[in-house]
Amino acid sequence: MTEVELFEVGPRDGFRTRRAPFPTAEKIALVDALSDAGFRRIEAASFVSPKWVPQMADGAEVLAGITRADGVRYAALTPNMRGLERAMSAHAGEVAIFVSASEGFSRANLNASVDESLCAMRLWQRLQRRPTCRFAGM
């Protein structure tokens, strides 16, 4: 039997693109509604720099405010070690990390070179041994 896992990223990706910040309470309500609808993996927050993406500055509040349903993994996207630390402090159940193969994209979006991002990836790999959080690479 073939299985398909849906990874709902709307709460993170959808709110990121809005010009004005979306109310935290409404983000929490959306994540809870997705849990109630049966999604088992939801990217609920992003721990990027609030200076560059103010729409996502409330990631810790979103993760603190959701009603965590049994069997649902609540993920957070992190581009660097600072984001990873914030996600872990906010009790993200899964952390999605990403690096870029393009030097230009990496500099523009991660504020690091490709080599620096790969070094950070090695540190993240060491943290995978922590039983409280899963890691996913992108």
Helix content: 40-55%
Structural class: alpha/beta
Distance linking N and C termini: 26 Å
Average the pLDDT over all residues and give the rounded result.
Answer: 83
Strand order of the largest sheet: 1-2-3-4
SSE layout and pairing:
Layout: H1 10-16, H2 24-36, E1 41-46, H3 59-65, E2 73-78, H4 81-89, E3 94-97, H5 103-110, H6 114-127, E4 134-137
Task: Please tag this protein with its features.
138 residues, alpha/beta, four-stranded parallel beta sheet, 6 helices
Describe this structure in words.
This protein has helices at 10-16, 24-36, 59-65, 81-89, 103-110, 114-127; strands at residues 41-46, 73-78, 94-97, 134-137. With 138 residues, it is of the alpha/beta class. The protein has a four-stranded parallel sheet with strand order 1-2-3-4. The model has no long low-confidence stretch (mean pLDDT 83).
Compact description:
This protein is an alpha/beta fold and 138 residues long. The protein is built from 6 helices and 4 strands; from the N terminus they run H-H-E-H-E-H-E-H-H-E. It has a 4-stranded parallel β-sheet.
